[in-house]
Amino acid sequence: MAESIQQILTLSSELHNSRSLSKNDEDRHIYELVAVLRRSSHSILGEISLTNLSASEHTLPFLFALLYQVDLVRNRTGSSLPNDIEPGGWLWLRAVQFLGSFNGSQVSHVGREWCQLVQVFLFVAENTSKPFLAVRVLSKAILRMNRTQNTFDPLHPGFLRLCLLSKAYRYAIPILDRQISILPSSSESRDRSDYMPGSDDHAADRKSEATSTHGQLTHKDVAQYYLYGAMIYMALKEWDKAEHWLIIVISLPVANSVSKIMVEAFKKWVVVSLLKHGKIATPPRIISSHVMKIYQTVAKPYLSLADAFEKCDEQRLHNEVKLGRPVWRADLNLGLVDQLFEAYNLSLVLKLGRAFSALTTANVAEKASSSLNSAIRVESYVASLAMSGVLEARLLHLRVGQNSTMLRFPASMRSCAARRNGLRVELMDRGQALEVLSRGIRECNTDLGMGHESIDLVMKRQGWSAIMKNGMTKVNADDVVLGVEEDIMGDVS
After folding, report:
1. Which candidate, 56, 141, 152, 425, has a CA 20 to 30 Å from the CA of 439?
2. How many structural domains comprise the chain?
3. What tens digit of pLDDT does each residue of 103-121 get?
4. In which residue ranges is the amino acid composition biased (Basic and acidic residues) (predicted)?
């Protein structure tokens, strides 16, 4: 038994210290070590001490021994959540140690075991109501696994869910900002197994080892990831990114019907569109008509709410929000819908700015919602928008003794002239570009002898004009071909 443990640790140390190995040689060593670990009995894995083992130097033995200890404790206690794996327990501490220092290139070859460990970690963190304790550790672990390639992992949705539960949104940003460029499929495993070194006797083992860290990727995993990511951006009020991620979800390809996750994303997309644009944005063209009909059928309360918002009907908007409160609460969108009143005021002021060059704050108060029912409140609200850069406007006090204030919209006064000047500049730029292109074509024609005069001269020299006028009956086609060949060879000589 001691000899087998020593063999495992020796292979692991050689792998850790072999800096000069080629990629194929390194893979061969990893496969050998994984094969030994997977063939090892429970008694051997139980003899591996996690206390004195370095997770960075002995990544794979540490991982296999840790999983064995977790299974052992669960079987012994008959509980899926024994004290030893709860936060503060000795196995929890060993898992934190591993996730903070493991070798990513080695773990990428044992995806099954990696997924098992992280799933245990996610389960414990969520069921002990302490998700924040796992968020920071998992954030660094996911980044460690994807240092060179931004590969989607089924564990991503679970991590984002923990971020939402713990309200630790900032820890998710480094993951979300890395654009996913690889969606693993089952074909990757087959392709990768083709070039794995080793004997044919262990072909099945090698193919199993090739399944990397991605596990079984499903449509639900992808939809959940982008929905959770959009919810995090919504919590941070980054409406641009939230809208983009929701569009990804509602645009996912479907066979016949849409999933519940996609319906939930569409409902959120309607509200986010109102918060960002003041109206429902144009849906992507990639969404088929029958899918849009399904969305519109199941999201009627949200579309009715949006209609009241777009028509600036404050009384109806209040009624829609009040009547639909059970719906918003059931969909977990109550907080999102409540933000519409603030967005309503902003949308109204922006619409007034597009329609008028100047207004008194009293005029704005007449048109604004009940929360801005006085000129003083309007002045304070507009001043906050102007100082935050959301609104380009100026507040001008009128004559002494008058309480009203004039609100001017410089952007609206210059909008027509600015658009006109912009179109003029764009037309001039395109005209110059066309002139440069035309000049270049003429120069190429001259250099290549493709001008009208050159073409006429060639036709006369080679008898093409006779062919064009009289046809092949009066001119021998062989003579014409011979003339072309002689002309080409003459240029070479």
Report:
1. 425
2. 4
3. 888 888 888 899 899 999 9
4. 188-209
